[in-house]
Amino acid sequence: MNRSESILHGLALETSRILEIGPLYKPLLWKGVHDVYYLDHLNTSELRAKYKDDPSVPAEAIIDVDFVQTGRNLAEAAAPRGPYDIVVASHVIEHVPDLVHWLWSIGEVLKPGGTLCLAVPDKRFTFDMLRRLTTIKDIDEAWAERRWRPPLDIVCDSYRNSVGMEASAVWNGTLDSDAIAIGWPAEIVNRWIERHQNNEYVDVHCWVFTPWSFLALIGKIAAKYQLPLGLRYFWNTQPYEEEFHVQLAWNTASPLGTDWTAAANSALATASWPTHVLRTAGLAGVY
Question: What are the start-end ranges of the H helices in the chain?
Fold first, then answer.
């Protein structure tokens, strides 16, 4: 399977109404081919202005956005064309400030039995490599605070502990832990701190996962916050890749009975590991 086939594995795309969150310039589903609508945090012109100086994003290729989410109101923003059979979010879930609220919002726009498709970065092969894994306590704090943006401690952690590396360097054993850049310079971090203190939204990865930590955490969230989530599909991080794929089924009628602990244990047992990574100086034991 290619990436798109894995993320959307087994779904009846031709007969489904779909919401894709944050597609930017390379959506997984295209209008004219599928009944799909796009949601982002800015409108199209604002997105193009935001990325006009980013060489990694061709600003002119950014697609037209149907819905703009302001603040925490994803369900309200996407409601005009809902409910949806499928919601797709590639490299989105790690950015949301309040994970419980976001999942509940997804449930509000999904039909009973609908599917949330996720592509999630695996910290082992991303710039989050040295950041600690997210815990249920972190999730609880965000929910209790009704967070609408990343807090200052997460902004600082993201910028000070990010690693300048490519996934391929971890997989092929060329990563030199003594030479890689860890953290942004202090003047850059201080600039983002100032922007945060001015009440601006500073976009960072709020949550850090491995495939097995993610599944275990979703199980804890589902149980604690009574989210009717079940695991429909899981695809572990593959060699020379940096993400894993998950489909969560939303069923408001009855519990789906997923054994999340078993799912997490299976993800760990079947994980691919570079032969070099655990003996790289300074990185052993961080997973």
Answer: 3-7, 44-50, 74-78, 99-109, 136-145, 152-161, 167-171, 186-197, 211-225, 260-269
